[in-house]
């Protein structure tokens, strides 16, 4: 790591950032050095991030220094842990990279984890392996716990255990005024409310403590069928979902995976459909509930069975390596067979859909219940979520986005009328507003005005002011 004291060639930015650099324990990198490129490049390579400088925060004090400096100098601040949910190109902003805030402590007796903001679910899941615990991970464990939880965190066990943000005990956060706060439901109920679901609109989380679950094993995985069975699988899934208990969480994904290393041979270069499934209970009960889907067509692969809960990432098998992606998202009020038919028209095997994946997640169950301590996460009662992911070189991504827009229009008869913050990065202020009810948006806006008076976070997912 570059030392913060290392003199660099004189540039305008050096002069501007000299005072800040001297106050940091971590390094500040400007364009033109490899560390800048490494840290400013997000996981989603479709976004060409171009911050004025990147600060690799070494401690919460660094985060506070950067925010104060930005506010005093009329600059904006962005935050990145992994770049899975990058909100903008961050033009001219100071980017705080959190990967070096990587401490974590598991308290096995209390069943809690205390982590720094750079820690990913992968780290937590493997640390929990062997002690019979787990957390409410993202479908993609490479995502940061803090970034995910700031948007609610709705993962592959959401119908059984609710949102990850419901399990937070406390945060350590630097608000837009540069103040470092220790925040719990008791100490600061408003900030605690807004940090759970409000994305990064109020502050940069530097650390957090959350509850773990005692859950060594799950009955989980995915069933894969080829293009011939897509129609029957999707229709069967639509009829099966309403019968499921809260112990089961499922999603279905139509996929066109390229023949690349890591893609299982039976799925590579083909149109396939995957039924993802997590059951919390005995393997026998899990298999009984899954039986209608197992018989919905001849299986290409049956990868559902008992597994350690640390392997939850196998359920979606989301890509791990960075790629250029255009994502679309909306929530659905229902997913009857007629909706499945519409989805097949827009994205089925005969549709010429360019999307790598079109996914429907079933929500409901525990997720639909308001948590004991209220949070800013809205639309918890939406029964289904729809996501599209198109992957390709940047010039083709606008066409993928246009296709996703047409697909959403096709599905509009079943629209819920809203979105989730974790699935709508990059959709601007209007997209941010779509994540919330008017009352919650109003409260978040008022809190943002109080905690971020200079609006330094406005390049991220924040309310319009
Ligand atoms: C393949 C894939 C699968 C996914 N699966 C799910 C899923 O199952 N459920 C779900 O809910 N979401 C899911 N997501 C969305 C994911 O949770 C968001 O993109 C999340 O913001 C990623 O957080 P990150 O910190 O890793 O990403 P980054 O791009 O580094 O950060 C994204 C945003 O998170 C916020 N953020 C990050 N760090 C902090 C911090 N320290 N303080 C405050 N705000 C912060 C900021 O708004 C930031 O702009 C998925 C995304 C991908 C790409």
Can you describe this structure?
With 465 residues, this protein is of the alpha+beta class. It is 28% helix and 24% strand. Strands 12, 13, 14, 15, 16, 17, 18 and 19 form an 8-stranded antiparallel β-sheet that branches. It has a 5-stranded antiparallel β-sheet with strand order 5-6-10-8-9. A 4-stranded mixed β-sheet has the order 1-2-4-3, sandwiched between helices. The protein is built from 14 helices and 19 strands. The chain binds flavin-adenine dinucleotide. Flavin-adenine dinucleotide is lined by residues 42, 79-87, 98, 117, 138-140, 143-144, 146-148, 150-155, 199-200, 204-205, 318, 422, 425, 460-461. Flavin-adenine dinucleotide binds at residues 42, 79-87, 98, 117, 138-140, 143-144, 146-148, 150-155, 199-200, 204-205, 318, 422, 425, 460-461. Keywords: FAD, Flavoprotein, Oxidoreductase. One of its GO terms (molecular function) is FAD binding.
Topology of this protein?
Elements: H1 12-22, E1 27-29, H2 34-40, E2 53-56, H3 60-73, E3 77-80, E4 94-97, E5 104-107, E6 112-116, H4 121-128, E7 133-134, H5 145-150, H6 158-161, E8 168-175, E9 180-184, H7 189-195, E10 203-211, E11 213-214, E12 217-226, H8 230-240, E13 248-257, E14 270-279, H9 283-294, E15 299-302, E16 305-308, H10 313-316, E17 325-332, H11 337-347, E18 357-362, E19 384-391, H12 397-410, H13 428-433, H14 438-451
Parallel strand pairs: 2-4, 3-4
Antiparallel strand pairs: 1-2, 5-6, 6-10, 7-11, 8-9, 8-10, 12-14, 12-15, 12-16, 13-14, 13-18, 17-19, 18-19
Helix pairs in contact: 8-11, 11-12
Residues 42, 79-87, 98, 117, 138-140, 143-144, 146-148, 150-155, 199-200, 204-205, 318, 422, 425, 460-461 line the site of flavin-adenine dinucleotide (FAD).
């Amino acid at each position: 790591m570059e030392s913060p004291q290392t003199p660099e060639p004189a540039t305008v930015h050096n002069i501007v950032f000299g005072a800040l650099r001297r106050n940091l324990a971590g390094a500040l990198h400007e364009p033109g050095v490899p560390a800048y490129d490494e840290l400013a490049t997000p996981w989603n390579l479709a976004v060409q991030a171009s911050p004025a400088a990147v600060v690799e925060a070494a401690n919460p004090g660094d985060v506070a220094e950067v925010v104060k400096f930005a506010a005093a100098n009329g600059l904006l601040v962005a935050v990145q842990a992994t770049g899975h949910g990058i909100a903008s190109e961050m033009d001219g902003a100071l980017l705080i990279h959190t990967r070096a805030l990587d401490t974590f402590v598991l308290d096995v007796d209390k069943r809690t984890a205390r982590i720094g903001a750079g820690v990913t679910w992968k780290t937590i899941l493997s640390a929990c392996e062997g002690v019979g615990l787990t957390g409410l991970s993202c479908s993609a464990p490479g995502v940061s716990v803090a970034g995910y939880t700031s948007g609610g965190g709705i993962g592959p066990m959401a119908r059984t255990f609710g949102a990850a943000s419901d399990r937070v005990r406390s945060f350590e956060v630097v608000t837009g005024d540069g103040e470092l706060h220790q925040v719990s439901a008791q100490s600061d109920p408003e900030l605690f409310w807004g940090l759970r679901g409000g994305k990064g609109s109020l502050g940069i989380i530097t650390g957090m403590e959350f509850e773990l679950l005692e859950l060594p094993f799950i009955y989980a995985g995915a069933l894969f069928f080829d293009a011939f069975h897509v129609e029957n699988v999707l229709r069967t899934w639509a009829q099966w979902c309403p019968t499921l208990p809260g112990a089961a969480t499922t999603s279905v994904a139509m996929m066109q995976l390229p023949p690349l290393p890591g893609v299982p041979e039976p799925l590579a270069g083909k149109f396939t459909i995957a039924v993802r499934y997590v059951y919390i209970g005995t393997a026998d009960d899990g298999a009984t509930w899954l039986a209608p889907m197992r018989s919905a067509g001849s299986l290409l692969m049956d990868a559902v069975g008992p597994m350690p809960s640390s392997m939850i990432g196998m359920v979606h098998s989301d890509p791990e390596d960075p790629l250029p992606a255009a994502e679309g998202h909306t929530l659905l009020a229902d997913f009857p067979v007629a909706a499945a038919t519409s989805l097949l028209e827009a994205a089925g095997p005969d549709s010429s859909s360019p999307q790598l994946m079109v996914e429907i997640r079933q929500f409901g169950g525990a997720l639909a219940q308001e948590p004991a301590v209220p949070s800013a996460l809205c639309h918890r009662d939406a029964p289904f979520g729809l996501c599209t992911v198109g992957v390709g070189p940047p010039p083709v991504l606008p066409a993928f986005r246009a296709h996703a827009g047409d697909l959403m229009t096709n599905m509009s008869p079943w629209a819920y009328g809203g979105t989730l913050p974790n699935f709508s990065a990059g959709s601007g202020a209007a997209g941010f507003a779509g994540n919330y009810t008017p009352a919650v948006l109003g409260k978040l806006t008022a809190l943002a005005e109080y905690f971020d008076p200079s609006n330094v976070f406005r390049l991220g997912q924040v309310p319009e002011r």
